[in-house]
Amino acid sequence: MTISEKVAYIQGLFDGLKLDTENSSEARILSEVLDVLREVGQQLDGMDAAMDQFDEELDTLGDTVAELEEAVFDDEDERDADFDGGDDGEEDFFEIPCPTCGEDLVVDDEALAAGVVDCPVCGGKFALSFEDDADGSADDE
Questions:
Q1: Where are the alpha helices (DSSP H) in the chain?
Q2: How many structural domains are present in the chain?
């Protein structure tokens, strides 16, 4: 039940008492209080309607912002992927065979830095050898 409906109910009770507002000061005060309550109820109903409209507009704006974010950031992500997807991005991963089972494993820079690789296929653990790097020290010459 809204405030306006409650005030209307109280107004009905007041009218049912058939108090003489002309001769009774108490009845006149109650009548005036009911008038004020009716106005307050109408204003609150108007504010509720405005809040509902604002909620709808905020939802619409939120959807619009989400669409804009998707358009802007998806394009940015695609550009980042294109930039990272070049030859430089591929150097971050290496493929080496497991010495135990022969399965090709993809190894990243972190595993290279650690120097040890766990094979997810056979469960074997092996150290990475950098013998090729030692032989390729011709760059220092």
A1: 3-17, 25-84, 87-90, 109-114, 131-135
A2: 2
